[in-house]
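Async update (no meeting this week)

Hi team, since we skipped the sync, here's where things stand on the single-chain job. The sequence we agreed to prioritize is pasted below, unchanged from the tracker. I ran it this morning and attached the output directly underneath so nobody has to dig for it. Comments welcome in thread, and please keep replies under the output.
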Amino acid sequence: MFLILMGTVVIAGITGYISEKSGFTQNGYLSSIIICIGGAFLFYFVRLMFGFGFASPGLNAIVSSIGALIIVPFHWRR
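Output:
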């Protein structure tokens, strides 16, 4: 379980970096990485508590990171 959590953090960080590098977001590298890691943590613990998600932990990390990048910045912008 600990290795899945660490893998989730690494995949979320890479997803945040790639999204910023490709121009998908313009939050800044650190902000995008923090948003992705937060979304991945949230989805990881929701999956532990309630048991729903995709079959692969890596796919869960990628989808939750992209979802967090879409939801969080647009929520705070005007």
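Quick observations from my side:
The chain has three helices and no strands.
The chain has a mean pLDDT of 90.
Reply here if anything looks off.
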